[in-house]
Each structure stands twice: as structure tokens, then as C-alpha cells.
Amino acid sequence: MAHYFQFITSSQITSIIIQPPEEDAWQQFMLPVDNYTFKSRSRAHWETQIVTPNTWSRVLSLTPNKWKQYWKILSNAKQQHPYRLEELHRVQLGHRRHYPPPPTDGVCHLCLTSIDSTDYHDHLYLHCSISKVVWQKLHISLPQEWITIIANYNLNTTQLLLLNRYSHIIHQLYSLRRLAYKEGNVLDPLTLPLIKNWVSYLSSSL
């Protein structure tokens, strides 16, 4: 990468002026600990402002207290395993990348069976035969239900990591199949050996 910096001299680097933060911004985001130390106010903000995704709260009757307990265990697990629980976090928040629109032809791109578009996400994550195989291949010894995946504060760190891996594999596998279909390719059925290979390959990227 040295060639990227071959026209920058050391004197030019040292002449770069670092603009200190504005006083108002500093007071807003930094909390004084003593005369020399500050810490971020974000944790204090998180403790008082609980994120409660509306749809999941309504569908699964989740209270703010349940979300608070879940965010606590997820935060602790993320501190132990940085960047390895982002997919599961997005699923909790209802991120659209994990909830794709139903296929226009009414056929699941994974299992190639006809589906009801109104229950598509239930099918994709819970009932699809391919998703069930992925769940089994990951050895998730929990019921394949939303109450297992969403805001389940009884999970341990290993179970959170497995559910993150499951969310990642389903998202990636579906996205690849959906792209192939949109490009005019005929989707072949996914065989057990092929699913096993995909699970192994996609798991290695986490």
C-alpha cells in the first residue's frame, strides 16, 4: 500500500491541523469522571432510552423490560465477541436486508415451493425446508420459533452466536438465490450436500 502515500511527505502529515471538538458537542457526548478523564455518555443514554422495535413488541407482546434484559445480554456478548453478533442485532431491529420482499412469482427462492406472501418471513425463517436443514446443521437445540430468535433474554452467548450464524446464512443464501433468479437463471433444488457446503462456507466468514 506504500504507493498510495508516495506523494505525501512527513512535513505535510505533521502540518495537518486537528480541529478540536466544539464545546457544545463535548458537553453533550462526554461525561466527566475527574479533572483529567472523560467517558462517553452513550451508555447512560442507553440505560434510560430503551430501544423497543414496535412490530416485534406488538406481535410477540414484548415489554420494554424484556427488551432491556435482552439488550443487556446482547451487549455483554458483543463485548466478548466484537463484530460477531451484528446480523442477529439487525434481525431484532427489523432491518430490511433481513426481511426481503416476497418473491413476485409466489415461490420461495430457497425451497422452490409456493408460499403465501403475507406469511413470507415466517416461511423464510421458520418453516422453509431449507431453513430447517440449516437450523439442524448448526445444531441449534432450541425450538425454531420467533420467540427463540427475538428478544430472548434467556439465551447464553453460545446460543446467541449460533442464532447470529443462522441469520447470516439464511440472508446470504436467499440473497444469492434471489439475485440468480432476477438475472434469469433457473433455480435448481438445493440438495443436502450443497446446503452442508454452504453452511460450512458461510459460517467461516463469521
Core attributes:
mainly alpha, 206 residues, single chain, 11 helices, 53% helix
Report the uncertain regions: 1-8
End-to-end Cα distance, whole Å, is 26 Å
C-alpha Rg (nearest Å): 22 Å
| Major sheet description | 2 strands, antiparallel
The helical percent reads 40-55%
Rough outline = globular
Kindly name the structural category: mainly alpha
Number of strand segments? 2
**Which series of helices and strands comes N to C?**
HHEEHHHHHHHHH
- Estimate the mean pLDDT confidence: 84
For the largest sheet, list the strands in their spatial order: 1-2
Descriptive notes:
This protein has 206 residues and is mainly α. The chain is built from 11 helices and 2 strands, in the order H-H-E-E-H-H-H-H-H-H-H-H-H. It has one domain (42-183, 190-203). It has helices at 10-14, 23-29, 42-48, 54-59, 64-80, 86-93, 120-127, 129-137, 146-149, 157-182, 192-203; strands spanning 30-32, 38-40. It has a two-stranded antiparallel sheet. The longest helix is centred in the last third of the chain and has 26 residues, at 157-182. The two termini are 26 Å apart. Residues 1-8 have low confidence and may be disordered.
Quick synopsis:
The chain is mostly helical and about 210 residues long. The protein has helices spanning about 10-15, 25-30, 40-50, 55-60, 65-80, 85-95, 120-125, 130-135, 145-150, 155-180, 190-205, and strands at about 30, 40. The protein has 11 helices and 2 strands.
List the helices and strands and how they pair.
Layout: H1 10-14, H2 23-29, E1 30-32, E2 38-40, H3 42-48, H4 54-59, H5 64-80, H6 86-93, H7 120-127, H8 129-137, H9 146-149, H10 157-182, H11 192-203
Antiparallel strand pairs: 1-2
Helix pairs in contact: 6-10, 8-11, 10-11
